[in-house]
Amino acid sequence: MADDLICANRICLLDEHTANRIAAGEVVERPASVVKELVENSIDAGATAITVTLEEGGKDLIKITDNGCGMTRDDAVMSLQRHATSKIRSADDLDAIATLGFRGEALPSIASVSVMEVVSRHESDINGVRLEIEAGTIINLESVGAPQGTSISVRKLFFNTPARLKFLKTSQTELSHITDLIGRFAIAYPSIYFRLVHGSREVLTSSATGNPLNSITQVLGKDVAKQLAPISFETPAMRISGFVSNPSLTRINRNEQILFVNGRPIKSRTVTHAVDQAYRGVLQPGRYPVAIVFVDVVPELVDVNVHPTKAEVKFSSEHEVHSAVYKAVNSALMQGAAAPTISDHPRRPAQPLHLTPDELRPQQPSLLPSAEVNMDAFREALARRREEALSAEDKEDPFVWQKGEGVPVEESPVPEAESETPRTVALRSVKVIGQARNTYIIAQCD
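Predicted structure:
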C-alpha cells in the first residue's frame, strides 16, 4: 500500500542521502574542490597552521590538518547535517558575511561521495572525537585522544559516482590544481603556515611571516617578486592593495592574475577589466601582467552567495570597484615604481637617403613606357618626411619606462648600434603614386 501511495504521487521529498549527492555535484567537482572547502573551514576556525597531505593527486587521499578551535562531540556530529553551520544564524546574516564558509553544505556533500574520517578536539575539551563516515552515513563514533584542532581525511573520492570518477584527470593535473589553490591561500593569508605534501614529497610551504611579498616569492618565485610594484587606493567603503608587474614582465594568459575579495580567492570580470584598462597602450595585444589584487570592501556591499562554489561575487557598485582598482594600478604604473628601463631594440640614428643620377648605373631596357617624374617635388617630400621623423625622435617615448625606487632589478647594457654607411638608391623612371600611413611614399618604377 505504501509503495502504491509513493507511485501515485509524482512529486515527493527526496531523502537526505539523495539530496546530499545532488548538492555534491555542485560543490565537489574535483579533489581541489574538497581541499578548498576544508581549508576554508580551517581558516574560519582560526587556524595558524594548515597541512594538506595528498596521495595520487587527491584521488586516493586528501587529509587536512589544522590547529584551529576544533569541534565538540555534538558539533562534529551536527556538522554532517545539511545546512548545519556555525557561521550564520538567520537570513539577515547573509547580507554581511565575514567568513569564507556559511552554507553548511561542504562536509555533508563531501562525505556523501567518499569515505571520510573526522578527528577533532575543541579547545575546552579534554578528549577528542573520531567519526567514520561512508557515503554520508556515520558508521563509527568514539572518543579519542587528539591535539586541539581538526583533522579530516577523505578517501575513495567519487567511489559511488562512477560518472564523476571517470572524468577525473591524471594525478599530476589534479595536483597542479591543488598546488595553485594552496598558493593563492598562502598569498591571501601570509600569517598562516601552509604546507602541501604529495606522497613523500613536500610540494609547497609558506613562511607565515605576515608579509604577502614573502608568500608571493615562495609561490611565484623570486624573479617575479622582484619585478612587482605595490598598489594602494582607499575610499570610505573599500581598500585596494596588492602588487602588479612592470610592463617588461608579462604572460600569455591571466593565470598569474590572482584576485581576492575580503580574503576570498575569486574570479571577477570587473577587477580583471580594470587591470587591463590600466595597462592599455602599455602592453602588446595578447599579453597580460602579473597582478595580485586585494579588494577589501564593507561586507554589506558585496554578495558572495551568487555561485555554487563561491568562486564569483557581485558588488553593489561594480563601477566604484572598477574605478578604485584602475586608479590603484594606474598610479603604480605612472610612478614606474619597480619598472626597469625597457626597450625592444636599440635606437639607431636615422640614415639619410641619397639620390643619384641615372648615369651612376648602366642603362637597362625599360619594361614600362618612360614616365616623367618631378624630381624636385619628390626630393621635397623626402626632406619633409625626414624632418618629421627627426622631430618625432625628440619627443618622449611613452612606452619607455624609467626605473623608479621600487625593488631593485638587474639591467643588461644595451649594445651600441653598429654604424651603417649611408644607403644609396638610384632612381630611373619613377612615378609617385601616393603616400601610406603618413610614412611611406608609394612609387612605381621599372
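Summary: Residues 375-394 form the longest helix (20 residues).
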